Each structure stands twice: as C-alpha cells, then as structure tokens.
Amino acid sequence: MSTPSDLSALVRERSIIVCCGSGGAGKTTTSAAIALCGALAGRSACVVTIDPARRLADALGIQELSNEPKRIKGPWPGELWAVMLDAKGTFDDLVVRYSADPEQADRILSNRLYRNLTSALAGTQEYMAAEKLYELHASDRFDLVVVDTPPTRNALDFLDAPGRLTRFLENRVFRLLLMPTRASLRALTVATQALLRTISKVAGSEIVEDAVAFFRAFDGMEDGFRDRARRVEELLADAGTAFVLVAAPRRDSVDEAGYFADRLAEAHQPVAALVMNRLHPDFGPGGDAARAAAGVATAPAPAPADVVDAGDGVETGPDEPGSTADPFPLSAAQAEESLVGMRRNLADLISVATYERGYLELLESKIDGAVVKVPFLSKDVHDLDGLAAVAECLTGQVLSRRA
Question: Has residue 49 been placed in a domain?
C-alpha cells in the first residue's frame, strides 16, 4: 500500500496534531508550519509550544508569546494563532476552576508547598501542556490545535501525564496525607502520626505544616482534577488526534524517533505521519554525478585562460577590449586540482545522501502514514516567508502575498 506524500489530509480532517521528536530535529518549526497549513486551508489553527526558547515566536515573526492565544495576521483565508505555555499559570487556572470558592483558591495559590510543586515537580510542565491542549480544544475557538512537545522521551511524559496524575490522586500515600484534612491530628491513626513525625525529623516541621495546610486546602478538589485528567487522556486517544513524528537524518534523532514510534504502537496510537527534515539532495545512481564520484571526469579540463576565443574567431589576450577571459586565470594544473576537489565534494555529498536515505527507510518501515521529505534549506527559518517554504513542502500549499 502506498503512503501519501504530504500532510494535506491530516491538516484538513484532524482536530489535534501532536508533533513529537528529538531536540534539534526542527519540531518547533514543523509545528508552526502545520498550523500555517491549517490557516491556508481556511481553518482556525492554533500552535502551542512548551519549549521555553523563542524559536516559535521567531518563526512566526513576532516579538513574544504568552499563555493566552495570540493571533498572527497574514494573507490566508483561515486564522493562525499561537501560545507559549506557562505551566504555573495553567495550573493556577485549574486550581481556581475546581475550588469551591475564591477563599479556597487563595489558600492553595499562596501555599509554599503548592508554589514549589508547580515549579519543581517532575512532569508538571508536561501535564499542563496536555491540559492546555484540552482547554484550547474544548473552547471551540479552533478547528485545529497543533502541539509542539519537548524532546522525545519527555514527550512520552506528555502522553503519560494525565494517567500519572490520576494514579497519584488514587495513591494510598496521597490519601493518607489527605487524612489530616478530615480529622484532627489527635484522631489520626498511629501509622499516620508516625509518618508525619518521620517527615518532620527529615524535612522539618515547617514542611509538614505546609503539607497539611496544602492538603487541607485541596480537600474536595481531587475529584475535579481526576475527572479532568481522564478527559485529557481520552482526548489524546481520540480518533481526531494525530501524532506526527519529526526527525532529522542523524543517528541520534532516528533512534529517538524509532523509540517513540514503538511506544505509540504499544499504546495503540500509531504515527500518522513522518516528517524528515533537512535532507540533502539525492543525486541518484548513474549519470554525471555518479561518474564524478567514481573519479571519472564529466568535462574536459579547461584550457589555459591567458588566450581564449572571443567568439568571432579572433584570438585576444585577457586585457584586450572584448575579451571574455577570466581576470584570475588558472593554469591547467590548477584547473585540474580544482576539478578533483569538486569531484571529492560531490562524492561526499552522495555518501551523505545515501546514509540519509537509509535512515529514512528505517523509519518508514515503522509507520503506515504520510512520509514528507523537507529539503535542507539555504537558511534558517526565522520569519513567515521561511515558514511558508516549509509549509509548501508539507502540503504543497503556497502562501500568496496578494491581499
């Protein structure tokens, strides 16, 4: 079965596209370009990144992004929006949403343990990215939400985060720590009192007081968080969600992408498309390029340039009027040396291209979806024109500058 060669169907039909891959593979640029393709197709598209660097803002040609969607104006029939995830701000919004009243929200938001958890707890950023995805999707403002995840193995945390939060809320230790909110300390079991005394000795009494205050403030909210986490998990498994694997033709990037593809297959969430970025030109077998790589001259060595044919049958010197001679003539030996160097460079390029095709074939064998090849561009993508060039490779759509 042949696979499609672009992402047109995904951009038109899916509501969520999650871009995954190793660092340095062009994932942020690809995510922004896919969102641009959505806008070009007449959809309202939003791209969200959890990358703290400025690459997404740079690619969109704007100064800054925030946790709220920012519209990017341009000559497309749809809408293009972008978000830079603020994990703490998103967590704060969840607390406010599930608090019984403003006083409960204030108690949690001002708690020292909560502030430390939101800034240091492993997986918080990934779960908040999944939560932001759900929030944007549920708002009904966007036809397409594109997520730029962190490098591959952290992206797996992004997929596991909703389930991890649910398991945490159902964990026996969590419920044990929640007990002081539902009974006086004197009424606690001997085991619970012993646990709190042990924590006090190791971490200090202030930590225990903060923890008890946090869980007391959190009382009654766990059901809301648990329900939300399950809905996020269901959204990631929904048929309207597509996972796009982004890779560069390097061994480390290919290994990471292959690992991610295997994990998605285990979770019954197959890769819908592969985008291989920065491929060198394929010179192909045979022809002048292959003969040059083998050391066979493709053209005779140029004659000494001190006397050339001016085109009218009259021989002229390099300084005479009408001369077409090179002002920096090469001797026959220098010309031959230059030609040998060019043959060597061409052979190196063919070798690189061959290795890259091998990497591409290795990943192609792991997916059934579209396979898109993005060439090595002459310059980095840092504005909408560069982004449009990538978008054209992804779906064939061309950005028109006409109003």
Answer: yes
User: What token pair was written down for 4?
Assistant: 């499609």
In angstroms, the CA 399 to CA 296 distance is 43
Query: How close are the terminal C-alpha atoms of the chain, in Å?
Result: 41
Distance, CA of 237 to CA of 178 (rounded, Å): 31
- Which one-letter DSSP state was computed for residue 19? E
With 60 as the cut, is the pLDDT of residue 383 above it? yes
**Is 221 in the same domain as 347?**
no
The per-residue pLDDT for 317 is 45
Residues 191, 94 share a domain: yes
Instruction: Say which amino acid occupies 390.
Output: V
Name the CA dihedral angle for 303, 306, 310, 315, rounded to a multiple of 10 degrees: -100
Domain that holds residue 78: 8-280+376-395
Opening angle at CA 81, ends 80 and 84, nearest 5: 145
What is the value of pTM for the model shown? 0.75
Shared domain for 169 and 297, answered yes or no, is: no
* pLDDT 10s digits, 345-357: 888 888 888 888 8
Which pLDDT does position 190 carry in this prediction? Answer: 52
DSSP structural state of residue 181: G
Tokens encoding 35:
């969102």
Which tens digits make up the pLDDT trace of 87-113?
788 888 888 988 888 998 898 888 877
Torsional class of 322: left (φ above 0), alpha (ψ -120 to 50), beta (otherwise): left
Q: Write down the H helix ranges in 276-331.
A: 287-293
Residue 35: the pLDDT is 97
Give yes or no: residues 255 and 332 share one domain.
no
Angle at 218 between CA 215 and CA 223, to 5 degrees: 120
Residues 6+ apart with CB under 8 A from 365: none
